């Protein structure tokens, strides 16, 4: 597997702050706004954004975690069942402005599942999507992020890996992984 660093630690920090400032421009004091991180990896983005907004504004933005496992369109098609993650939404979404947060936007199917899962907590006034990485040209559904850290041209055969300091690695970083030729399945005659 070939790994190419696409967002080093310093740029990662700048990206998080830029996204926080973009949210401030739109949501001002966050009095009617909430952040929902999609399980499993979007919660790291949500927590980092909440901490950055707290640092900049001095206010705590309500933040929750949303599990989409049972709303996925491939839930019953898998040979092994998916293990659900914890949902932590301790507030109503009724009439609120919701910022859905995930690390990577790929096919759009997770976002569709999140929209279904979210309705259990009320009908929001508005839903926006924030992602660290937007994998362009890979959409199965017409989903577009409102806030994007960085757009990446990638193939379906590639993978984007977000490494979080303290969880996955020593520093925050984002990598593009490409299978090497010896890992590709060989065609037989």
TrEMBL record:
Gene3D superfamilies: 3.40.50.2020. The keyword Membrane does not apply. The lineage of its organism: Bacteria, Pseudomonadati, Bacteroidota, Cytophagia, Cytophagales. It comes from Nibribacter ruber. SUPFAM superfamilies: PRTase-like. It is an enzyme of class 2 (transferase). Keywords: Glycosyltransferase, Transferase. This is Bifunctional pyr operon transcriptional regulator/uracil phosphoribosyltransferase PyrR. NCBIfam families: PRK05205.1-5.
């Amino acid at each position: 597997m070939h790994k190419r660093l696409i967002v080093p630690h310093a740029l990662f920090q700048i990206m998080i702050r830029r996204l926080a400032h973009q949210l401030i421009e739109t949501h001002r004091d966050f009095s009617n706004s909430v952040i929902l991180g999609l399980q499993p990896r979007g919660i790291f983005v949500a927590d980092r954004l909440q901490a950055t907004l707290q640092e900049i504004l001095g206010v705590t933005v309500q933040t929750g975690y949303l599990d989409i496992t049972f709303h996925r369109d491939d839930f019953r098609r898998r040979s092994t069942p998916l293990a659900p993650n914890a949902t932590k939404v301790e507030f109503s979404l009724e009439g609120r402005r919701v910022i859905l947060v995930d690390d990577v936007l790929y096919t759009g199917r997770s976002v569709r599942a999140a929209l279904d899962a979210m309705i259990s907590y009320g009908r929001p006034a508005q839903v926006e999507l924030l992602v660290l990485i937007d994998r362009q040209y890979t959409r199965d559904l017409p989903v577009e992020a409102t806030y994007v850290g960085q757009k990446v041209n990638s193939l379906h055969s590639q993978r984007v890996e977000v490494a979080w300091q303290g969880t996955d690695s020593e520093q925050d970083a984002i990598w593009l992984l490409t299978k090497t030729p010896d890992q590709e399945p060989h065609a037989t005659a």
